Amino acid sequence: MRTRRSGKLGLALALLGLLLFAPQGLYAQIDTGSISGTISDASGAVVPAAKVSLTNEGTNLTIMTTSKDDGGYIFTPVKIGTYTVAAEAAGFQKVSQSHLTVNIDQHLLVNLSLRPAEVTRPSK
Known about the structure:
Layout: H1 2-26, E1 32-41, E2 51-56, E3 62-66, E4 72-79, E5 81-88, E6 95-102, E7 107-109, E8 112-114
Parallel strand pairs: 1-7, 1-8
Antiparallel strand pairs: 1-4, 2-3, 2-5, 5-6
C-alpha cells in the first residue's frame, strides 16, 4: 500500500508541475517587429497623406502606406531584417532613412522630416 500511495503522490506532483510550468513553453517566439513614426515638415507640422514606403534591404521587397491625419504611419508585422523607410508628399523632397534593423518583437520609431521641394522657374 505504501508504494501505491507514494506512486499516486508522485503522479499528482508531476501533473501539478506540468500544469504550472507548461504554459511558459506554449508562448511561441515571434520573428516579427514593427516600424512606426510621424511624418512632419521642417516647422514640425504633421504631413497627412504622405506616401511612406518600407523596403527590405535584403530582398528589395517594398510595401507602402499613407500617413494618417496626425502624420502617423505604421508597418506591422515586419519580419526581422534591415530596412529603409522613405516618405514623400506633394511640394516636398523625398527623404529616407536606411539600415534600420528590426529584431524579434522590437518596435522601431522612425520619424521623418520632409524638406520643401526646390522651386524651379521655367526657362524663357
